[in-house]
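Follow-up to my earlier ticket, as requested here are the two runs.
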Amino acid sequence: MIHTKEDLKRYLYADREAQPPHPNIILRHFDPIYRIKTLIRLCEYHFNLSSNSFYHKVAYYCRKLQLKRLEDRFCSEFAINVFDEGLVIWHPQRIIINPNAKVGKHCSISSGVVIAQAHNMCPTIGDNVELMIDCAVLGNIHIANNVRIGAKTLVIKNINAVNTTWAGIPAKKISDKGTIETPIPRPTAHL
């Protein structure tokens, strides 16, 4: 979680390294993915410090309003204090994240991903996990590190096998190759 200015800088740097923004600083601010990730991190920073400071309360509500506009534009719901550093968002449309879920470092999510509660329990997702288009992770489950979840997959049970690929409804293991043998591709900066 982001509690200091140094934490904020570290998280923003890790997110930019995982998914480089446009090299032109002016065009960078028109990139919705860059704006969403930056606003998520700024909201986390100001929210975590808002109990002691009026400035951080006001700054949090201003940043949250900006984030809400982008969420409405892309029909998504991004929660704060969920993602660890190195977040990659491929397409920001229709992403729903429960605020009580926990996601590890270097997570990659695509359009239509749902990380949600079932019976008031939320999932915990490990490091280096790739969630592909339209997959859903529901309930009190744990997903191990270096796991790839295929498109249109429904995960309702724990995935304890490290470095595997899962697909189907409900999810079944289809490969022993996860994100170690075939790492999450790093997006290149716009040229």
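Run two:
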Amino acid sequence: MSRILPHKNRQEYQTTELLPLSMVNCQLRRICFPFLFSYVEVKGHPDVEKLTALCAVNKDFAASIKSIDLSHFLFPLLSQLPPSHFPNLVQINSTCNQLTIPLITAIKFHPAPTFFFESFTLPPSTSILDSQLLSPSDLAKVVLDQQTVTDELKLIDIGKYLSRGVRVNVLVITLNTFTTPLLNESFGERKFPGLRELSIQVDPGTRPFTLSWLSKLAREHPLLMSIVIQDNRRVRTLDLDFFKREPIIPFLESFVDQVRNEGLIDTISIRSFGISRVEPGSAFTSERFGEWYVSQMSFHVHQWGSGHFLHLAHASFPRIVKLGFSTDRSVACPFDDLVKSLRRFPSLEEVYFVQPISMFEEYIAMQAPNCSNNLEAAIIQYTSRISQQIPNIKTIFIDDQFAPPKKDRG
């Protein structure tokens, strides 16, 4: 079950000309209308009244609404959204992070089939989960977008929700120096209804862990299609030696060996990597890793070196869909070198840059002196050229929220 949300800002290359909606005919406007208003965000009490009034007088508008966002303080007003006004409503989203008896009652008796919550505060209230108050199916409508677990107790706590019907889309396991590893052999026997993605957050002090549980967990969770391992500090990165500790994390072992043999071990580090599951019936399988393959990598570059590390990455991970980059402040990545390297990945669809100021500097200098925002113009020019020269890249993200990692990553 995927949550319906508005599209986030991103650059997506389009080869065909787009026309304003007002310029096209009435028939196309009617076709587009349901998509334009499928998601509605209610921010305050007046919005509730306005929304119900609009739906009462405009049946087409009401019929187009499939998803409604209600902040936690508005959830008590759920009863003021008459089901008859929203005939095609499929989900209600909320920022509530703690269940209460009134909230559970409202969910139970409202006809909307799904209620999305960002996450729940742990541990849950003992009174809420009293078996006399809740039957095993009372929370079957509830889906958690993402739930973070940091230790064994939190894993037990979230299990109390899941045993009463709650589903979880993304489970985040945070591992650090001081906790007993959660990802042991028995992890594969746990049940996480609805699980689609597993995110494993690590740091250099994380105790070595095994992925021997992967096959068993995958068999029990047919919807699980993605597993991501990343540095939970974000502003730093992991040396490649992190992936050579015993027990060795599979998937990256041969790549790390090749990088070391080529004398490039100090030129890059890894922000994150992800593996994906082949679609049922797919002809693509790996003798070594079964139905899983590396689908995304995010590198931090200390020395560009003509991008040779990307040649090795392609040889090891030919089916990569998503690539990410950040660089030391002094590192320059020539545009032609980057494009040549990216062309090697036939499945590549997404590229994202983290604090890419050094990569755009040569384009900033090209902008006219009277340009009000040289950096913005440089980004547009840089990303547009990438999209034009590599048409299979559909999306380019720019993340400027964090400063790039320093060479000292201790």
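The only thing I checked on run two: Residues 374-389 form the longest helix (16 residues). Let me know what else you need.
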